[in-house]
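Lab meeting, action items carried over

1. Structure of the two-component assembly. Owner: GW. Status: complete.
Input record:
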Amino acid sequence: MRKLINAPSDVVADALRGLAAAHPSLRVDPEARTVVRADAPVTGKVALVSGGGSGHEPLHAGFVGFGMLDAAAPGEVFTSPTPDQILAATLAVGGEAGVVHLVKNYTGDTLNFKMAAELADDEDVRVERVLLDDDVAVVDSTYTAGRRGTGATLFAEKIAGALAEEGAPLEAVAGVAREVNERSRSFGVALSPCTVPAAGRPTFELADGEMELGVGIHGEPGRERVKAGTAREIVDASLAAIDADMPLAGQELIVLVNGMGGTPLIEQYIAAGAVSDWLAGHGATAVRTLVGPYVTSLEMAGCMVSVCRATPDLLRLWDAPVETPALRWGR
Amino acid sequence: MRKLINAPSDVVADALRGLAAAHPSLRVDPEARTVVRADAPVTGKVALVSGGGSGHEPLHAGFVGFGMLDAAAPGEVFTSPTPDQILAATLAVGGEAGVVHLVKNYTGDTLNFKMAAELADDEDVRVERVLLDDDVAVVDSTYTAGRRGTGATLFAEKIAGALAEEGAPLEAVAGVAREVNERSRSFGVALSPCTVPAAGRPTFELADGEMELGVGIHGEPGRERVKAGTAREIVDASLAAIDADMPLAGQELIVLVNGMGGTPLIEQYIAAGAVSDWLAGHGATAVRTLVGPYVTSLEMAGCMVSVCRATPDLLRLWDAPVETPALRWGR
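Predicted assembly:
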């Protein structure tokens, strides 16, 4: 294990201390394991709360701030946050206007967020839940009934966060997040596995020269184990899988070319070039492109392509100001 | 080689195409191999040009934009850009106000930037050169006479870029970049090597369980090969080396906790927590902290800590608006 950690059991706590030290704009509670906007609760605003296993940074804590999430509940590595933890995040930011829970579709997350929402209801905080399930690779997987939630989470958090910042009511904010999920698809490819610190061995085996098409963000199996291809082949396979599920021709797209954690930025830009070529060859247009490691799987090498079919409204909300540790623009 | 590329010979060209596709704010010339602000030349403004081998992304092309660089000249992977390439970047952005060349101290870079500056002078474009040499690990190295230039390059590009945006004259912009370099120090640690695509094998060998203290950003040897330590031990060794060269007690610091390309963000935040502890224990304060993979070495695992002793003026310029692909705030 070539990891920059102190001890496997301290990974999340130590990372939260670093997050707190680096970002005065966040309020990190090491006991409750919550990360909250320093100015929360924002009076009259619908609050957005997300969370999930750690190991996908900057998702979600790096997206807490103006124009995006109000709070995040980071679980242990690749492990759902507890209901208590999600409840604490929800109560720290939720007021009269209510709270939207943005939940990636994994069994543990859906259960624990549901329980937290019921507990919040007991405290008279209204919660609307939005489930993210954008990964076209497989139906049902190691930790999932139905499709997995991956890259579209970023789209939903950004766009719903912008609408909440405009003062929209609970149903509208939840509604736009659902709309984003319905209009988004993702597909990921792994060139190497990753190792959960507490486990000490790779989540799966991948021979040198092989790749996993349709891999999940925890290294869950995808569709096929094949000979490693070029960046162009990897991108073409990813976009063909997405296109087969949601035709892209004629669409204007918000695109995320996402590094999985161990793939350097220069390679992510090579993938971005291939994405641009594929779209041009299939009558689709990337109206916005984000390139970087935003939804990661520890040190896994590989990339994921996510697209969202834009509308003028969604694009306006995408472009709206955001100020978080990992995503900042326009303010 | 688990790389997301098309062919080793196409790495830089393909990455530049992706950069162009993702960022309409940049003008990428694939022939001249230059990356230029789309609004360049900015009339009356001192222009900042940097460059160097590719493989360190987002350095430098990802720092081209408002408030930072006017142009970058990316060479082949770990290979200096040619004088022609640097000249093209210089002439694309340089006007009456002159140009500052920000040059990391490597033999090839210093030679080729010098030649480009002479050629620019023939075209009546004034060039001031600033040499970055902040890495305290070693004096002289594989590609270097004197100290290597690493993380302080980001500080200098940001701060001098902000002063140029304010309309300061050539000597002042070059002067503040030199001041930043003098007040900055860096130290890096590798937990794994990296592989230059064209070479196809690791730049150096590192047994599992070993680390290289004081490694360079091309995998050049550092001070010592030792048993891999905890994040805290790695950070403590890095800051002790910096402190021995430039005492940190009582200082207010701008801090960069930099991932080397293959180390995930959660581990970089663990290192950031350790940096915060070390500084608190030694009477120094991080007034600003940036955490992320900003000055990378392909897929090398490890981290680098860079610090700049702030002054009120440097801090004001650090906080000034910036709008580049990799660094954005405040506008």
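2. GW to write a short summary for the group page. Key points so far: Chain B touches chain A through 65 residues (CB under 8 Å). Chain B is about 30% helix and 25% strand.
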